From TrEMBL:
Signal peptide: none annotated. InterPro entries: Trp_biosyn_TM_oprn/chp. Residues 185-210 have a biased composition (Basic and acidic residues). The keyword Iron does not apply. It comes from Georgenia halotolerans. Residues 167-183 have a biased composition (Low complexity). It comes from the Bacteria. The chain crosses the membrane at residues 48-69, 76-98, 125-147. Keywords: Membrane, Transmembrane, Transmembrane helix. This is Trp biosynthesis-associated membrane protein. The keyword Transmembrane applies. Residues 156-210 are annotated as: Disordered.
Length: 210
């Protein structure tokens, strides 16, 4: 799997988790409940059909935020959380798609006092969408695990390099002072020039300098 940059993975995880939280608030299943005089149509939203889904979406939001600002170890942990949370959302949502009746029966008991339906229960498109969003969040977690080695560490401090134009450099580095060897060399040269003058030679003449 090709590593994706953090600036792509994090928004995908955030949007996927936030959208899951929104979708959990709409009807997921429906059915007809018999009453004393007639039958009533009832609907069940995601928070009742799969109560763990909104909580997993909040966990996904927190993990996506940690993925955005975390260092390498935090990226690994956040990616694992996203992977598990997304897979769990997908599994729970598909469970409602395949078997919507238990959630509707629970709601029927609250409405009429009897856990009974007139006809089969059905699922709306919302759990399908939630399952897809869960897969998206899980893929974002997988992308975080794959790309963690290529992502730079957030908050890393870089040292300033030397600026030739301004003459500034890295802290602690100063221009090297002339060593004692250079001072001795200049002193020997002055003594040689003095000796040349004593011999009647011109020390400024290259031919007469030793």
């Amino acid at each position: 799997m090709r590593a994706l940059p953090r600036r792509v993975v994090v928004p995908v995880a955030l949007l996927g988790a936030a959208a899951t939280l929104v979708v959990a608030g709409v009807p997921w299943a429906h059915g007809t409940v018999p009453t004393v005089l007639s039958s009533d149509e009832i609907t069940v939203d995601g928070t009742s059909a799969a109560p763990a889904v909104p909580a997993l979406a909040l966990v996904g939001l927190a993990a996506a935020a940690a993925l955005a600002i975390g260092r390498r170890w935090a990226v690994v942990l956040a990616s694992v959380v996203l992977l598990v949370a997304g897979a769990s959302v997908a599994a729970l949502s598909l469970g409602v798609v395949l078997q919507p009746e238990p959630a509707v029966l629970e709601a029927a008991g609250r409405v009429s006092g009897v856990r009974r339906l007139d006809g089969p229960a059905g699922a709306t498109a919302a759990p399908f969408l939630a399952a897809l969003l869960g897969v998206l969040v899980a893929l974002a977690g997988l992308a975080g695990l794959v790309g963690r080695r290529d992502w730079g560490r957030t908050g890393r401090r870089f040292e300033r390099t030397a600026d030739p134009a301004s003459g500034t450099g890295a802290p602690g580095r100063e221009a090297a002072a002339p060593g004692p060897g250079a001072a001795v060399s200049e002193r020997d040269r002055a003594m040689d020039d003095w000796d040349a003058l004593g011999r009647g030679e011109d020390p400024s003449d290259p031919a007469g300098r030793r």
